[in-house]
Design goal:
The protein is an alpha/beta fold. The protein contains eleven helices and 16 strands.
Length: 387
C-alpha cells in the first residue's frame, strides 16, 4: 500500500499551504488570518457551503457526495499555534516572535485541506462530509465552544474523527486504541498561609515552606498508594513560589500544577484526595490553606467500533503491520474530547518520524507525513460513506 496517486499529484500545494500556515501562526481564538486562509481555500475548491464564525473563529466546509443520500460525518483539524519562540532557522520559520506551530496544527490543517480538495473534485461518496477547522485547542477549549455553538446539530453530523501527529512514530505509520486515549487535564492552585518570621528563629514562626514541601511529597502518594497500581493518574506540582529574602520565613507559599487521569472515577477521587491531603497537612501544622481546582479537558474516549473503522482505513493506506490498533494511552490532553462526548468517533495518531517533541522550540511538522494523512482522510471518509 502507498499514498494515493490522486493525493500524491497535489502534494506540492499541500506542502506550500503547510509552510505558509507555519510561517504565520496565531494563538487561541485569535486565528482570524488563519481562518480566512482556510475559508478561501475551501471556497476555491468548490465546497457546497463554507461557514465561518462557528465557535467564534472556527470554519466548517460542507461537501456533498454524488452517490446519493447518506449521513454527514465530520473530519476535524485544529488551527491555533503556541506561545513559543521558534529556534530553528527554517525557510518557513515563524514570522512572529513568541508564536510558533510547535504542535503540528499547520500540518493538520494542510492535510485536511488536501482531503477537502479531493472530496470536492471527486465527490466519490454518498451523504456529506463536514471538514471542521477548530480554534483554541491549546488550552482554550475551542472544541467545546464549537459544540456549544451547535456544530453537530446545525450540520447534522453523526460521527466525528480527528487526527494528530506524533513524533517518535515513524512516518507512514498510525496508532490508535479504543476507549480512553488522552487524559483529562485538570489544574490546581494552592495558597498556604502560615506565620512568617526570622529564618534564624523558626520556632517563633509557622513555616509555610515546610508545609508546602510536605504537601508536594504527600501528593506523590496518590498515584503510588491511593489508587490501583494499574490505573493511570499523574499529579505534578510545577510551581512553588515562596519568599523574598534568604533570612525571612515568608507568611505565604503558593503551589500550582496539573492532575491527569484516564477515568471519571480517578478524576473525582484524585481531586478529593488532594483536598484531603492539603486540609490534613495544614491542620497538623496549625496553618490554613486555600485550594482551587479547575477542571480542564475531559478524557478523550474513542468509541470502540469507530476506532476499529479508523484502524481499518489506516491499514488500507499503509498495511496492518504499520498500524498499532492497541496503542498505549497518553497523559497529554486533547479537546477533541468534547466532540467525542457529543458524537461517536475516534482520534488517530499519525507518525511524524524522528523529530523534536511536541511543544518544543525545535519542532517542525514533517512534510513527509502529509501524503499519508491526506490519504487516510480520503480512505476513511469514502469507506464510511460508500454508496
Amino acid at each position: 500500500m502507498a499514498i494515493l496517486n490522486s493525493v500524491a499529484d497535489g502534494l506540492g500545494d499541500v506542502r506550500a499551504w503547510r509552510r505558509h500556515l507555519h510561517a504565520n501562526p496565531e494563538l487561541m481564538f485569535d486565528v482570524h488570518e488563519t481562518a480566512k486562509f482556510v475559508a478561501e481555500k475551501l471556497r476555491e475548491f468548490g465546497c457546497d457551503e463554507v461557514v465561518t464564525g462557528i465557535g467564534r473563529t472556527g470554519v466548517v466546509g460542507l461537501i456533498n457526495g454524488n452517490r446519493g443520500s447518506g449521513p454527514t460525518i465530520g473530519l476535524r483539524s485544529d488551527m491555533d499555534a503556541l506561545p513559543i519562540t521558534e529556534r530553528r532557522d527554517l525557510p518557513h520559520k515563524s514570522k512572529t516572535s513568541g508564536k510558533m506551530h510547535a504542535c503540528g496544527h499547520d500540518g493538520h490543517m494542510a492535510m485536511l485541506l488536501g482531503a477537502a480538495r479531493h472530496f470536492a473534485e471527486t465527490r466519490n461518496f454518498s451523504g456529506r462530509i463536514a471538514v471542521i477547522f477548530q480554534p483554541a485547542e491549546e488550552g482554550g477549549g475551542g472544541g467545546r465552544v464549537m459544540v456549544e455553538d451547535g456544530l453537530m446539530g446545525r450540520f447534522d453530523i453523526e460521527r466525528v474523527y480527528g487526527m494528530h501527529n506524533m513524533p517518535g512514530i515513524p512516518v507512514g505509520e498510525f496508532a490508535i486504541r479504543k476507549g480512553p486515549f488522552f487524559a483529562a487535564t485538570d489544574e490546581f492552585a494552592i495558597t498556604i498561609i502560615g506565620k512568617g518570621g526570622h529564618a534564624a528563629m523558626p520556632h517563633r514562626a509557622n513555616d509555610p515552606v515546610v508545609i508546602g514541601a510536605q504537601i508536594v511529597q504527600a501528593f506523590q502518594t496518590i498515584a503510588s498508594r491511593s489508587v490501583d497500581p494499574l490505573a493511570s493518574i499523574v499529579v505534578s506540582v510545577t510551581k512553588f513560589n515562596a519568599g523574598t529574602a534568604h533570612n525571612v520565613i515568608p507568611e505565604r507559599v503558593t503551589l500550582a500544577g496539573t492532575m491527569r487521569t484516564l477515568t471519571p472515577e480517578n478524576r473525582a477521587f484524585g481531586e478529593k484526595r488532594m483536598r484531603e491531603i492539603v486540609d490534613g497537612v495544614v491542620a497538623a501544622y496549625g496553618a490554613r490553606a486555600e485550594f482551587g481546582f479547575h477542571r480542564g479537558y475531559p478524557v478523550t474516549v474513542n468509541d470502540g467500533d469507530e476506532a476499529l473503522i479508523c484502524a481499518d482505513a489506516a491499514q488500507t493506506v499503509t498495511d496492518a503491520i504499520h498500524v498499532n490498533s492497541e496503542a498505549e494511552p497518553l497523559m497529554g490532553g486533547e479537546d477533541f474530547a468534547y466532540m467525542l462526548e457529543a458524537k461517536p468517533g475516534a482520534m488517530i495518531l499519525i507518525g511524524n518520524g524522528d523529530t523534536a517533541g511536541l511543544h518544543h522550540p525545535d519542532y517542525d511538522f514533517n512534510d513527509d507525513a502529509l501524503g499519508w494523512g491526506v490519504s487516510y482522510w480520503v480512505k476513511l471518509a469514502e469507506t464510511q460513506l460508500a454508496a
